[in-house]
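Please check the following for our workbook:

***
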Amino acid sequence: MNLLLLIASLCTASAAEALRERVLDLLSGVEEPATAADFAALGADVGIELQAIARDANVLPTQRGNALVALGHYPSADA
């Protein structure tokens, strides 16, 4: 049972890392900014990831700024 929990935990972490990388790729666009549809295609957790990126001081300032702009597509009580 513990092995199954470990595997599930690793898969979840891997999926979260993959989502973060895809979101960061979209936020890196300079000439052609990402659209709401681009972010929506990544799934339901995109808004949460955008919030995390906007707060992350280790992310490039342009990506953080683009995350703030993209958060306009994901209104929440936290914003």
